[in-house]
Design a protein that fits this description.
By secondary structure, the chain is α+β, with helices and mostly antiparallel strands. The protein has three helices and seven strands, in the order βαβββααβββ. A hairpin with a 2-residue loop joins strand 2 and strand 3.
Length: 82
């Protein structure tokens, strides 16, 4: 299971929306966070979110020990099972 937490603030809403468009990804809210969960990799294209670089690079709130970020650059965010 791959899990990623993103702070639920207006600037990060597009990240959750793009993730939710993937039928393999489930997006829920837990407290002040979006929880993105998938049985496979979670891949979010930065351009699809429309996020500026400062927002993009600060969107990750947490990654559990059983998941890991393998790409977080100007093109995409990719989280895989550890």
């Amino acid at each position: 299971m791959t899990v990623l937490y993103v702070l639920d603030v207006p600037e990060n809403t597009a990240v959750a929306k793009v993730a939710a468009a993937d039928p393999e990804v489930t997006v829920d809210r837990i407290g002040p966070y979006f929880e993105l969960r998938s049985e496979r990799d979670i891949v979010i294209d930065r351009r699809a979110t429309g996020c500026r670089h400062a927002v993009w690079y600060s969107c990750i709130a947490g990654v559990p020990a059983d998941s890991r970020v393998v790409q977080h650059d100007k093109d995409a965010l990719r989280v895989t099972p550890a």
